[in-house]
């Protein structure tokens, strides 16, 4: 029903532009700020099913639920958020949510330094919502949004039409923060400082007006300092044919060196280092052999 209404409105717009002979002169952008997900009562988690006492706090329900104490502002900073996080960690297999102190969430969420976001937040699996009690969820049916924007269901729509855009061109997804610079280029305006990357969407335009200038590399890449300083004088007893069990510790942030605890048949335990500019893994067991 909603799509039919949008289609009718767009049809009226295009018909009006054709009547004024403007349909080939204007650049038009159709865009949304988020996607939508179908709600389900079977995919709603309630904290009173996981904790014995839920009377000392309230929860802002939804797919990105947040928790705060009842006594605000007196207990806002002294409340035992960490204790609740510990009590909600790995309670059951396939648990659909994880409780995080907001500064430990991936930086791409931009939650750490936002005063309007409570210290304790919940990261939920796709299609899931969370509330304190069943009666406190707004609606477990219908549609909702607010999940991780990397979920396919949360991706927005973008359609560009007009003399400034390439014709019948499909591109990879991009972030909405890039659209402002694009519109400024179409209007021949100098964009104000913003979080987008000017020129990031040049591949959408027939005649880009801005050419970004990237810094030149002046030195050769260097080895990871941790790996470069470790010289193994003995065999670690590890090969592609050896049964290896590896446990990865939980890592939620980027730009880290991760320690792998490795057990082999020949060597009971040794430690490996892995350096990565971007890593997002959860605790898991991997096996090769």
Spell out the key features of this protein:
289 residues; alpha+beta; Gyrase A, domain 2; 4-stranded antiparallel β-sheet; 4 helices; 14 strands; 13% helix; globular; disordered C terminus; phosphodiesterase I activity; Phosphodiest/P_Trfase; Alkaline_phosphatase_core_sf
Q: Your description of this structure?
A:
By secondary structure, the protein is of the alpha+beta class. The protein has 3 domains: 9-33 and 156-204, no CATH class; 38-152, Gyrase A, domain 2 (2-Layer Sandwich); 236-288, no CATH class. It has 4 helices and 14 strands. The strands form 5 sheets. Strands 4-5-7-6 form a 4-stranded antiparallel beta sheet. A hairpin with a 5-residue loop joins strand 12 and strand 13 (270-276). This is Ectonucleotide pyrophosphatase/phosphodiesterase 1. InterPro entries: Alkaline_phosphatase_core_sf, Phosphodiest/P_Trfase. One of its GO terms (cellular component) is cell surface.
Mean pLDDT: 83
Please outline the major beta sheet: 4 strands, antiparallel
The count of strands amounts to 14
Structural class: alpha+beta
Count of distinct structural domains: 3
Separation of the first and last Cα atoms: 54 Å
- Uncertain segments are 242-289
CATH architectural type of the largest domain: 2-Layer Sandwich
The CATH topology of the largest domain corresponds to Gyrase A, domain 2
Q: Spatial order of the strands in the main sheet? A: 4-5-7-6
Strand content: 15-25%
Amount of helix: 10-25%
Write down the Rg. 25 Å
Number of helices: 4
User: Helix and strand string, N-terminal first?
Assistant: HEEEEEHEEEEEHHEEEE
InterPro entries: Alkaline_phosphatase_core_sf (IPR017850), Phosphodiest/P_Trfase (IPR002591)
Organism: Strix occidentalis caurina
Protein name: Ectonucleotide pyrophosphatase/phosphodiesterase 1
GO molecular function, one term: dinucleotide phosphatase activity
């Amino acid at each position: 029903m909603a799509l039919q209404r949008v289609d009718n409105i767009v049809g009226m717009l295009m018909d009006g532009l054709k009547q004024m002979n403007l349909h080939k002169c204007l650049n038009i952008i159709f865009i949304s700020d988020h996607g939508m997900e179908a709600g389900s009562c079977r995919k709603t988690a309630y904290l009173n099913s996981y904790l014995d006492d839920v009377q000392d706090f309230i929860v802002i329900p939804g797919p990105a639920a947040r928790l705060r104490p009842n006594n605000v502002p007196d207990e806002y900073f002294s409340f035992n958020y960490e204790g609740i996080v510990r009590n909600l960690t790995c309670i059951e297999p396939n648990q659909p949510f994880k409780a995080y102190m907001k500064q430990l969430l991936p930086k791409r969420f931009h939650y750490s330094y936002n005063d309007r976001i409570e210290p304790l937040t919940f990261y939920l699996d796709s299609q899931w919502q969370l509330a304190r009690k069943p009666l406190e969820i707004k609606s477990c049916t219908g549609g909702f949004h607010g999940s991780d924007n990397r979920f396919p269901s949360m991706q927005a729509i973008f359609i560009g039409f007009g003399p400034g855009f390439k014709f019948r061109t499909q591109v990879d997804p991009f972030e909405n923060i890039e659209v402002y610079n694009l519109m400024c280029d179409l209007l021949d305006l100098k964009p104000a400082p913003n979080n987008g990357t000017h020129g990031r969407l040049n591949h959408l335009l027939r005649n880009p007006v801005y050419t970004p200038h990237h810094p030149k590399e002046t030195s050769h890449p260097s080895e990871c300092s941790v790996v470069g300083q470790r010289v193994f004088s003995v065999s670690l007893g590890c090969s592609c044919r050896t049964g290896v069990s590896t446990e990865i510790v939980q890592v939620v942030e980027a730009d880290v060196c991760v320690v792998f605890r490795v057990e082999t048949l020949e060597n009971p335990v040794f430690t490996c280092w892995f350096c990565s500019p971007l890593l997002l893994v959860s605790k898991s067991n991997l096996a090769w052999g």
